Queue: 2 jobs
Job 1
Amino acid sequence: MASKVTPISGFQEWLPTERIAEQYFLDTIREVFELHGFASVNTRSVESVERLSSQGEDADKEIYAVRRLAAPADEQAEPTLGLHFDMTVPFARYVLENAGKLTFPFRRYQIQQAWRGERPQRGRYREFIQADIDIVDAGELPAHYEAELLLVIADVFARLPVGDYTIHVNNRKICEGFYLGLGIDDVIGTLRIVDKLDKIGPQKVAELLVANGLTDEQAKQCLALAEINSPDGSFVERVRALGVEHPTLDEGLAHLESVIATAAEHAPGVAIADLRIARGLDYYTGTVYETMLERDPGYGSICSGGRYDSLATDGKRTYPGVGISIGVSRLLGLLIGEEGLTASRETPVAVLVAVNDEDSRAESTRIATALRSRGIATLVAPKAAKFGKQIQFADRRGIPFVWFPGAGEDGSDQVKDIRSGQQSAADRSSWTPPQADLRPSLVSPTTD
Amino acid sequence: MASKVTPISGFQEWLPTERIAEQYFLDTIREVFELHGFASVNTRSVESVERLSSQGEDADKEIYAVRRLAAPADEQAEPTLGLHFDMTVPFARYVLENAGKLTFPFRRYQIQQAWRGERPQRGRYREFIQADIDIVDAGELPAHYEAELLLVIADVFARLPVGDYTIHVNNRKICEGFYLGLGIDDVIGTLRIVDKLDKIGPQKVAELLVANGLTDEQAKQCLALAEINSPDGSFVERVRALGVEHPTLDEGLAHLESVIATAAEHAPGVAIADLRIARGLDYYTGTVYETMLERDPGYGSICSGGRYDSLATDGKRTYPGVGISIGVSRLLGLLIGEEGLTASRETPVAVLVAVNDEDSRAESTRIATALRSRGIATLVAPKAAKFGKQIQFADRRGIPFVWFPGAGEDGSDQVKDIRSGQQSAADRSSWTPPQADLRPSLVSPTTD
């Protein structure tokens, strides 16, 4: 295999130390998801293209189709497969396929890769990892889940060095009711235009709204609504002050007020009501979330989702759900890729067992086995080189301890902390490294 | 999304309880790999088709090509991407791409999905998980690693309910040297025919060998060699008794004898020398492994690999390696899919906190937070239903404990083991479930 080796744009790979930092994130996310009672589901990587492309006009362009290189001609008629571009569409299919075997309300987490054939750019990859939680129920879904998901995410980010962040929450019913109360018929069209506010600014949005059939006054009111945000329930009063009335608006306001109040009690400072948040995807019907890092809001949302009432339906039964997804690859593209977050060493190994000579390799292996049986990651030196070379081998990899079989004057084993140079007698059946050295830890660029 | 939901042949998905059993396997494999000093690497899912298809004529047919559904016409000329069909080829590419940033000898594990477009059948999937370890060095690779990998696998399987198994080990140099000593020129051709022994039997193999230019006597000798196996070094004498001599044969015998001796010392009963093992892939150059389950050897190898001396080369430098791969999906297709191995419950949750009435949901949430902060997976009941219904909710999911806020006569919390019915006062800041109930455990069909 001597052909040229080239990276493929949009397909990120980490070096071993970076991968250990990534694993720390993935392990923590999984741990918190499980503590909050979510069960793991992994779905196959492929869905029928038909199912994938039913999700909106934009999705279509980004789908990666998958076909056997040597598919015979008669297979061309088969339904084409595509790689999934998120976890929500496959999960909705999984729920329908297994509805009779699942217990509802069903809480699942799903940490997997997804693929989108969009143009690679900062924070956007063609292959990426997402970590999703969703709660679906059969028939009715209690509203308190929409606040609960915020608390799970707050618990995850409390354990990871992500820096300051804010979860922006809205409820689509507020926009819908407000627009209807203003006498606007094209709710979805209006929502899509207002969604461009961050990109094109209020002036352009107003122009587009008027071009779409709104009066100047209606457009002004839509923009006034989108400008409202608050970390508490005060947004309700500000919406009321705009003087628009509609039962759907009342419903949305009460709902968002309750979500924000629950978040403020259990995870203060994490969430704000932000009435400009819309989310592009058509299937959201209630609460929607987007999460921005305070130090770089323009980087894009690192955790998004919302409530969907009719994504999973088999025609007879409907399974409403609410979900939120951490964009792990996007988040780590910034933290590891740009900011230099890393791990304390490139290997899980805490102890290198030296080899005195090749004839005594078996003895070094027995020591390693004894340490491993107590959960200490241990490596036996590859060659019976001079001890200086063996210590160098450990040092290059960041392995903190080297074990010398029978090195004591009385023939006992000795262990050396190669950072301090301190060496002392050690018993293979009881010695343990300090807790902080047992596994690699995260190293932030600012605290390094 | 009301379109028809159909499984896709060869793409396995588990229900939540089965997935917990799979996670137990994946976690254990990872833990042991790390204890033995392997660092995690994940490679992107795609490689250039050119690289993938350079691995032999069979590989070609099985590759899944990947292309953007809406790729513009001018993109058709780009090199086509394909999903990787194993971890070895992507890892060899990763080593070449990052050689300057890796520390050699480099030990990595890689637990990922792979895809092969072959006909789905028992134990063979189109999407499957493999768990690989490899050790590569720059220039020279010490031989003791070939024995070490066996010990890692033995350590993995000692912690999992896989049943009795045997790792069959051979060294390609034995076959090569033996064939050359017999005066056979076409070593690879002969090896490929002998590799069919299990499928077509000795009679047919002899016929094919003769058709390929061997004398009857040469064919008889090749079969005699393939029939030799032993759990110790006695195979050497039996090969010698066949009267064939060649320096490469001597080298291979000495090498295999040493691997078997090391395995017998550190993991007795696990490995046997079996001179019929050849492995289909061309890139193996020394030791080769295959692992059979005693209760169903015909199911195929669940753990295979070998030494490759020139898979990773950039023309200037060569990185010889040795690797072994657990076929996780194949193994679990038997254990979970056919034999009924499962988990003790369908959720990580150990405790359900009851809700007295919707107004006190916040109090139940605070209790859950206190339990989670001490590592106990906890769920708050979805509705303030009658306690009987809330207990039923836990029972249906296999959740062992239900927590009743303020249920004691003195207003203290109470916790009930719903299996025994025993209920007692409990402090949210100190109570813990028995270790065996903290997480779901594996349940074997035979011990159930």
Job 2
Amino acid sequence: MSKKLTSRAENYSKWYNELVVEADLAENSAVRGCMVIKPYGFAIWEKMQAELDRMFKETGHQNAYFPLFVPKSLFEAEEKNAEGFAKECAVVTHYRLQNDPDNPGKLRVDPNAKLEEELVVRPTSEAIIWNTYKGWIQSYRDLPLLINQWANVVRWEMRTRLFLRTAEFLWQEGHTAHATKAEAITEAELMNNIYATFAENFMAIPVIQGLKTESERFAGADETYCIEALMQDGKALQAGTSHFLGQNFAKAFDVKFTSKEGKQDYVWATSWGVSTRLMGALIMTHSDDHGLVLPPNLAPNQVVIVPIYKNDEQLDAITEVVNGIMKDLRAKNISVKYDNRDTYRPGAKFAQHELQGVPLRIAIGSRDLENGTVELARRDTLTKEVVALDGLIDKVEGLMTEIQDTLFNKAKNYRDNHITEVDTFEEFKKVLEEKGGFISAHWDGTAETEEKIKEITKATIRCMPLEGKIEKGICVLTGRESARRVLFAKAY
Amino acid sequence: MSKKLTSRAENYSKWYNELVVEADLAENSAVRGCMVIKPYGFAIWEKMQAELDRMFKETGHQNAYFPLFVPKSLFEAEEKNAEGFAKECAVVTHYRLQNDPDNPGKLRVDPNAKLEEELVVRPTSEAIIWNTYKGWIQSYRDLPLLINQWANVVRWEMRTRLFLRTAEFLWQEGHTAHATKAEAITEAELMNNIYATFAENFMAIPVIQGLKTESERFAGADETYCIEALMQDGKALQAGTSHFLGQNFAKAFDVKFTSKEGKQDYVWATSWGVSTRLMGALIMTHSDDHGLVLPPNLAPNQVVIVPIYKNDEQLDAITEVVNGIMKDLRAKNISVKYDNRDTYRPGAKFAQHELQGVPLRIAIGSRDLENGTVELARRDTLTKEVVALDGLIDKVEGLMTEIQDTLFNKAKNYRDNHITEVDTFEEFKKVLEEKGGFISAHWDGTAETEEKIKEITKATIRCMPLEGKIEKGICVLTGRESARRVLFAKAY
């Protein structure tokens, strides 16, 4: 069924690309840089969506839907935002194709169907949404406005990789409006917190919450909060961002409100998003040379049961027992799939479920029936044990928590062991080269130094962590004063 | 809060447009023909999505995601499909904007960033999906392939109306592949059945299942099944379609499979979809001059509770009782919202919930607390009654079913009373003019006659019903032989 994957040690990047395709998560499409998310990969994304959506709604947010297209005149209204996205956007210029007179059977753009104003396919929706909010916000009674959108966006990236960086990707984008600056900042922090909670409790990925430097901020934001994760190859991955947008968009789109006291003021804004990029983080944090490893909280099938039989009579007897197990597991909200396909042998099924990261496999053969046992195989540890059918449900329930915790702790140990404090640039380069991970170093706070370090080492400032001690020091590159350590890393 | 709506009798079309905006369902955007779906409207759509998604998954379908863009060369591969959609598609020709040297602060398309091949924003995804299926299908073991996608699509319609016909709309599109023609036809019928069940059980809209005539078929289909509903103004609305695509796309994209017997053959296909257009059907079927009327099975809030109080002490006492009611209603899976906003008076809240179609309103005042009563107001019948707090939960639970049934039966009575058999063209025109609705008439089976009737009366053949007697007769227009009656109507 599946060919052996390239090992991580041999070629991490190749391992990732092969795994994504072989585990049936996604594949490249006929459209440059755009991916097809296959059913198994999409089922994981759906589980992520469901949890995030629940968390958004529990904190008072509502979903809505805004247009895919942004007229050029709106796109360019907030200058920094426009500048940030203009270089990589898909532009609709025509609204019709016609038969190509020079190529029978082929079509061409109809030159008479040129749009008066070009439409940008949304790379992010602040412009179209703030233009809409102008009509929705008049008074303090209309605030706060807490809205989220699940949507596709397009950024014309030149170098793409499945899930990590694609021309079209799926995401959610929250866009909120507030009466005060303080409330908007609290919102931006709250949503970054929700992302961190989601990453840790569901994805089993430890993250560092922090602030971006000015040069790494979202185009149009006054402050960008982020969650940063560390992959197994020592590279960091920005897993989510939450922006305090100040009054930038309110001013660009003239969105004012009347306060209780009858005073007019511009509205304060946030936006925040996570995308299918999270799939890349999930894969690269836990998976191994055998394939995908999924935390139970996001696995489409937490348990798979494979019958081992020689004839229909044996299969029938096994199936009867399996039906009882499935009923009991489902009663405990554990998702289970019975893989009784007769077109594949058990060995091929085992290989597929291992490759696809099903947390727990249960195999039941005729001898098991006689002995009142089943065989359990954990995907995370690749260990097997024979256990009694009696007590199986509690055992499996316990394992779901144990596997989830094991994955998180393993990732956290790795991450914690890969945060290195350095005080010289030599050390900086040596650690980056030999060990990778986050480097905690002093920086003089200038964009020039940040850029120079990036040029020399390819490491960027991932964030200024929100937690931990703030100590003064001297910049590793320039020797100038530094107000605090920041985290550097090479990043996806 | 809300201005009075134009009445249906005065101007049905205006009534609809006003209602959609006033009830906070959707509004027009800055992009020609594209709508913004507002949070309340989107919450209804989310309920529809959840139910449909459950029904699709229960019948073995999986979700996936395919690219937004279709390269022109793929778009034109299936000739009829291309011809059907070429005239109204958005075309991406460039991938970058740049500063406009002639207009400081403005952007323009970068002439150096022209795509080698134009990309069509998907009007439907058969082309991109069948090009993908080519890589997924080799053997009978890969079949059936049962995939659905929730997505946005763009059709450059010239005359648009909120929900009913918009340039961008949201929908689901199922795309399945099968080993045999019979299996594909069964699938197309199954999905049309699911649409009918959903429409009747959740939307409370009676529908007629039927087949489209050749001229009304989906471009590229061999057969199109549909569900047709009737609106209150006597016009029909196509609420969903399910297509048997034959081997047309398999041939256009060269998708073959090897059978168990080792024989190669092209794959058989279906596609099927419903869209945000359903929102239009829902609104126009049940709503009245006071605003939206929602069936309980799709209402974001099935019950709203409004406290009537003069001071905080009264409010606290009411709130305590309300908390108990909410807990008990939620335990019965009845969604309830406590509208305790202090920025609006009870009258304004009543008006808003009436306008927004909340099925049941409960008002509780201080005197109610003394008497152990509450006031119930049904949105469908606009009737009020005072009932005992004791037994309230069961009463509300019963009303949810009763309101759902009442709406369906009312719509069904109207629909059934508006199917008229006619045998002459004079009668045809008279009924169409004076009564509207479906006209069951004989037709000679030719596209010419169909077109001519459309030209004269604006009525089209909505479908050839799957159920009911098949009787021969003579065509109302030409007097030629007719194999069966078909249903004509003016339609949205």
